[in-house]
Write a structure and sequence with these properties.
about 240 residues, alpha/beta, Spore Coat Polysaccharide Biosynthesis Protein SpsA, Chain A, 8 helices, about 35% helix
Length: about 240
C-alpha cells in the first residue's frame, strides 16, 4: 500500500523542515512506499525556498507551488489530484497535528470505513480559536447534520477513491466529511493528540472567524440539494510542480 501525505502551507518557513522530517520518520515505520506533498499556497516568506532546498536531498518530497494564495480548499484539491497513494493523509504545516497518530489512523481505516477523521479532544490553541471552534462544530452538527465532533481537524486519512474526484469550492474544506458522507462514503473518527504550534504565528483571527461562519450557513443550501454535481467545480487555480 502506497501512502501519500498532503500538507498545505502558507508562510510556514520555520515549520516546513521539522514537519517534513518528523513525518518522514513516522511514515518510514509503517511503510516503505510513501510520498510527502507540500502545497505552497502562495507563501510570501522563505517557505518555498526551504522546501526546494530540502527537495534536492529528499526523493520522497514533492512540491506543488501556487502562483498566489488560493486558500486551503484549492490546496487540498491540488494535492488530491496529484497524489499517487492508495491512502491519502492530510495534516497542517504548523506542527500542531501530531504525526505519531498516523499509525492509529491507518489501523482505523478498516474495510468498514472509507475515511477516518481526527478529533482534537484537548486542543492547544488560544481561547478565541477554541471557543469559536466549539460553537462552529455544534452548529455544523445541527445545521449540516455532521456526524463527527471536529470538522476542521486536518489530520485525516482517506481511501483514494473517496477523494479522487473531489473538487472543493472556496471554504468547502471545512465540510469534506459532510460532502463525502452525502456521497455514501463511510466515516470514522478517532481521538488524536494536538500540540502547540512549532514556530510562527497563526493567521487565525476575527476575519477568518466570520468567514468560517459565513461558509457554514452558505453550505447549508448545498446540503439541501441532492445532486452530487453541486460539490464539483472546475478547477480555477494555477500551480507548478
Amino acid at each position: 500500500m502506497m501512502v501519500s501525505a498532503i500538507i498545505p502551507v502558507h508562510n510556514e518557513e520555520g515549520n516546513v523542515i521539522p514537519v517534513y522530517r518528523e513525518l518522514k520518520e513516522i511514515l518510514q515505520k509503517v511503510t516503505t512506499d510513501f510520498e510527502i506533498i507540500f502545497v505552497d499556497d502562495g507563501s510570501k516568506d522563505t517557505t518555498l525556498d526551504k522546501l526546494l532546498s530540502l527537495k534536492s536531498k529528499e526523493e520522497k518530497l514533492r512540491i506543488i507551488q501556487f502562483k498566489k494564495n488560493y486558500g486551503k480548499s484549492a490546496a487540498l484539491s491540488a494535492g488530491f489530484d496529484n497524489a499517487e497513494g492508495d491512502s491519502i493523509i492530510t495534516l497542517d504545516g504548523d506542527g500542531q497535528d501530531d504525526p505519531n497518530n498516523i499509525p492509529n489512523l491507518i489501523s482505523a481505516l478498516t474495510e468498514e470505513y472509507d475515511f477516518v477523521c481526527g478529533w482534537r479532544v484537548k486542543r492547544n490553541d488560544k481561547f478565541l480559536k477554541k471557543t469559536s471552534s466549539k460553537i462552529y462544530n455544534f452548529l455544523n452538527r445541527v445545521i449540516n447534520r455532521s456526524k463527527i465532533h471536529d470538522n476542521n481537524c486536518m489530520l485525516r486519512i482517506y481511501r483514494k477513491e473517496a477523494v479522487s474526484d473531489l473538487k472543493l469550492t472556496k471554504g468547502a474544506h471545512r465540510y469534506i466529511p459532510t460532502i463525502l458522507t452525502s456521497k455514501g462514503f463511510r466515516i470514522a473518527e478517532i481521538e488524536v493528540n494536538h500540540r502547540p504550534r512549532l514556530t510562527g504565528k497563526s493567521s487565525y483571527g476575527f476575519k477568518r472567524l466570520f468567514v468560517g461562519f459565513f461558509h457554514l450557513f452558505r453550505f447549508r443550501s448545498f446540503t439541501r440539494i441532492k445532486q452530487k454535481s453541486v460539490y464539483v467545480i472546475e478547477k480555477k487555480y494555477g500551480f507548478e510542480e
